[in-house]
Amino acid sequence: MPLTVELVSAERKVWTGEAGFVVARTLDGELGILPGHVPTLGVLAEGFTVRVSGGDAGEGIEAAVHGGFLSVSDDYVAILAEVAELSNEIDVGRARAALDRANASNDEETPGNGSAAARARARLAAAGQQV
After folding, report:
1. According to the model, what pLDDT value does residue 102 have?
2. 85 DSSP assignment
3. Per residue in 44-69, pLDDT tens?
4. Nearest Cα to 70, choosing from 32, 34, 40?
5. Are 83 and 97 in the same domain?
6. Which carries the bigger pLDDT value, residue 72 or residue 114?
């Protein structure tokens, strides 16, 4: 029996469908979910990607996710992110420029730039770019 997966951001439903495998990074570490997984609730780590493969996802979809949580119950996976972008929606040039800006101003006078850099790295990773 496949997993039913919903990837939702605060703004929209990003992707929904059946899949065979989901990988996400939580605050407790990387989590791989197959059908039959025990019920789980985890906080998504900031600035990582979620990968869904098999079923409707085919070879796989990858999304940059920023904040939120993941819930697994009865072969249903809900990924509720503050912001989520599918790999094919990411403007690589813009993401690279954001990473460069965050790295250039990464000092003690600009709090939060570590978070901006993590978001930019996640977007580049989701788009298949070297970081």
Report:
1. 87
2. E
3. 998 899 999 999 999 899 999 999 99
4. 40
5. no
6. 72
Is 61 in the same domain as 120?
no
Q: Say what the pLDDT of residue 109 is.
A: 53
In this structure, are 47 and 17 located in the same domain?
Answer: yes
Composition of the chain by helix, strand, coil, percent to 5: 25, 45, 30
| pLDDT attached to residue 103 | 85
Q: Structural domain of residue 121, as residue ranges?
A: 90-126
In one-letter notation, the amino acid at residue 63 is A
Q: Are residues 102 and 83 in the same domain?
A: no
- C-alpha distances (whole Å) from 64 to each of 1, 73, 79 are 27, 23, 12
Q: Which of 50, 60, 49, 74 is nearest to 124 (CA)?
A: 49
More confident residue, 108 or 51: 51
Is the pLDDT at 112 greater than 60? The verdict is no
Sequence letter at residue 127 = A
Cα 35 off chain centre by = 20
Is residue 63 a part of any domain in this protein?
Answer: yes
CB-based contacts of 131, cutoff 8 Å, min separation 6:
99, 121, 124, 125
> What angle is formed at CA 107 by the lines to CA 102 and CA 109, rounded to 5 degrees?
110
